[in-house]
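Long-time lurker. I teach an intro course on protein structure, and each term I like to show students one example going from raw sequence to a predicted 3D structure in token notation. This year I'd like something fresh instead of my usual example. Would anyone be willing to generate the tokens for the chain below so I can use it in lecture? Attribution to the forum is fine with me.
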Amino acid sequence: MSRFVIKARLPLPAALLALALTGTVWLGPAGAADQDPAGDYPSWEDVQQAKLTESGTAEEINRISGLLGGLQAQSESLGTAAVQSAAEYAVTDSALRAASAKVETLTAQVSQANTELSRHRKDLGALAAQSYKTGGTTMGFFVALDAIQTNSVQGLNVVRIVGDKTAALVARAESAGRVASSLAGQESAAKAERVRLSLQAKAKLDAARSAQEAMARQVAESQKRSEELTAQLASLKGTTAAVEGAYRQGQAAQAAYEAAQAAKRAAAAEQARLQAEAAARAAAAAAARPQAPAVPAPANPAPANPVPPANPAPPANPAPANPAPAPALPVAPSPPPVVVPSVPGGAVNDPAGAKSYASGRLGAYGWGQDQFLCLAQLWTKESNWLTTATNPYSGAYGIAQALPPGKYSSAGSDWLTSYRTQVDWGLGYIRGRYGSPCGAWNHSVANNWY
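-- Reply from a regular --
Happy to contribute to a lecture. Here you go:
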């Protein structure tokens, strides 16, 4: 759940893998986003009937628990798909902007090259006119100009036609023509790539919008269903909906914690792999370097036991008795979160607003303002308090870097775009797993994740 946790991508379900490969939005079976994920839901009459027997009560508890789990799983699946789709759009949009910048640069370079070519041609024309006025022949200039226009200067004895000085001008003009032609070709290719990326970005944006809308619809429906199911479960267990809700939140926090553990192990394995590859490349490069040639023996070798000088001068750079070990290979730093641009729907990256909101919510979780410094440091490290911060490897998302991102759905259907919902979920996760923001921060300092 941290930048350390991000080193390796977690395996995606088959449906999400299909999404990654095709760029389409997976909604499950036809109409699944608008249907109940686990069949019919019990009525209150069913609950009362089940309570008549102990076995019926146990069976109904298992059934409702399964329905709640199915709702949560579907919310998480669609949430993860929405985040991934938005991240794919962000990558394509970034490539499109880079391609547009490249086209602009090449267009300017083509214009400059054509200007230089035109100037050289004018200079040749002026020389031809001057030659004519002084009684010379202009035929050589016309031949040279025609050779430049048809790119046939090579093989032409320009010096014999127009002389040394004019031949240099012809060569400069011919070189400028080649540059202009090459740049024009690059500009044409860059424009074609820009068109391709523009179409791809539009398709990715449409997919991101669809994924976000499907997720929001399902999460809103899931919340309504979950409230009633939780109340029914509380009735069957003889507890309260608040108790059951808190229990399920704890379960969700535990699942998120275990996902972070798995990601951390995967990140460590990926880091070890990268270091091994770097060491192998360094060894191969060292082996490929040419060895210094052997120094031939002098014609008159020194005697076997030379007499040392009375006061030998110390060496300019004496070798240390214990040479320092070779420097360790650098560890590849964890990549920063990718900030996904807001798809129409309104995500707001407002770190100051998010911090202010989080500070005001500490009391609701039983903490004082002394905990805010720990929280500020923790989420600055995780996401810089950006609502759309997306880890490019694990897919962890948002201010609290929830993993999988759909875990946020238990706090509200607008979690993809609302820093308030993300902060509420994150504070609940911290309370359930670490007791306080300072507890979470201490764990992050010790382990580089939380």
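Some talking points for your students: DSSP finds eleven helices and two strands in the chain. The beta strands are 338-339, 389-390.
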